[in-house]
Amino acid sequence: MKLIKNRREKIKPFYNPLHLLFKQMVMVLLYAMLVGWNKRAFLPWLFQVRNLIHAGAGAKQICCFGLNPHVVWEMTGACNLKCIHCHAFGGEASYDELSKEEGLVLIDQIASLSIRSLVFTGGEPLLREDLFELIEYAKSTGFTVFIATNGTLITKEVAKLLKEFDVGVVIGLDAMNPEIHDSIRGVKGAYDAVIEGIENCVAENLYLHLNIVASRPNFDEIKRIIDFGTEIGVYSYFIYRFVPFGRGEDTRDCELGIEDFKALLDVILEKQREVRAIIIPVASPEYWAYMLQKRGIHNGRVINFLGRFFGGCRAGKGMIYIKPNGDVWACPFLPTQVGNVRKERMDRIRENLEKFGYDKRNAKSDSECKGCEYEPVCGGCKTRENLECPLRG
Fold it and tell me: Measured at the alpha carbon of residue 323, what is the angle toward residues 317 and 326, in degrees to the nearest 5?
């Protein structure tokens, strides 16, 4: 079944409405204050206005998965690597992936939701021959566009194309030690290739973001990666807590335990204070609660106020994750289909997502989160029903 065509709509510019732009500025200033971001690091980041607009397009909150709202299209299963943590089982393209024509209609439907930021991912999105046609269409619609890539296919020519279309580049880097990175990525030479891809992005002065999947094998590499990012001018980081999902189910022993998780949150807070980039934990909504607890903030009114800016888990409450065949999930780590873009319009699917987000059956158990003072900024991670909360003990 083909996607139903939507009337072509243009995305509003970043300054419309002005109150959203004001909220974004307050959000950034509150975050800097709460984490204790050193002014000598924070102000150079803040004054990169063009990058700030790029990163915050349409942002209503900073959450577990970056922006709220946040749309990610996993456009292909094809990939040239075999990452041990891949939630998408990247390798071969699916037989039923959305076509280019369906992708164009999908972009229109996402635009009708007044969402401004669109991420193309995979698999490896650079393996789709129509990627730049879809990027061009999304940009002409007004989207701020990112690609999430393993970085190994970013040649000088590709980097120039990304620059031409003003695409933000999200690259996965799991170690500064080549052997560790290659072992995680499943292909020898992956480290050398990704570093070359990063250098090509830097040469074109692209918006550059690094993804780090934190696990037992690379825990000691996290600070080194962040320091490398500082040297080359990375603007933002996602630090994923490894989730044993997809191919990751076969490497459950790589998952961080509760003490390692606390240590990870401490590393993020420590590095955030000193680096010229914003660091957002993924699959770790507890970060926001942990940060407030560290600051000794217990006032309910203050926490509720901060919840307007920092939303914790966004599964069903702002996150829209589209699989290659058009299935829509509330989170890339939650294999619960709430609709399919070939069968339903995006506005209806978003209604389904909202019902998912507020359905008590999808919330953390009463014993874990009920009555927690930090629920407005956290809510627990819906992918980890049986994992101990780092705020306890």
Answer: 95
Kindly state the DSSP code that residue 381 receives in the 8-state scheme: -
Q: Is residue 241 within 8 Å of 264, Cβ to Cβ?
A: yes
Gap between the Cα atoms of 319 and 63, Å rounded: 10
- Summarised one tens digit per residue, pLDDT across range 215-245 is 999 999 999 999 999 999 999 999 999 999 9
Task: Count other C-beta atoms under 10 Å from residue 132's C-beta.
Answer: 17
Angle CA(113)–CA(114)–CA(115) in degrees, nearest 5?
90
CA 214 vs CA 265, 273, 287: distances in Å: 11, 19, 14
Task: Lowest mean pLDDT of 112-116, 292-296, 389-393, name the range.
Answer: 389-393
> What whole-number distance in Å separates Cα of residue 251 and Cα of residue 41?
37
Sequence-separated (6 or more) residues with CB below 8 Å from residue 171: 149, 150, 151, 154, 194, 197, 198, 201, 208, 209, 210, 211
- Dist CA 158 CA 17 (whole Å): 34
H or E stretch including 68?
Answer: strand 66-68
Tokens representing residue 107 in the block = 């972009």
CB atoms within 10 A of CB 382: 23
Residues β-bridged to residue 145: 118
Give the three-state DSSP class for 73. Answer: strand
The reported pTM is 0.94
DSSP string, 90-117: -BS--TTPPPHHHHHHHHHHHHTTT--E
Angle formed at CA 63 by CA 219 and CA 325, multiple of 5 degrees: 85
Q: What is the DSSP string of 284-305?
A: -THHHHHHHHHTT---HHHHHH
Structure tokens at 126: 């650079």
Q: Measured between alpha carbons, how far is 62 from 52 in angstroms, rounded to an integer? A: 13
Which tokens go with 367? 């014993």
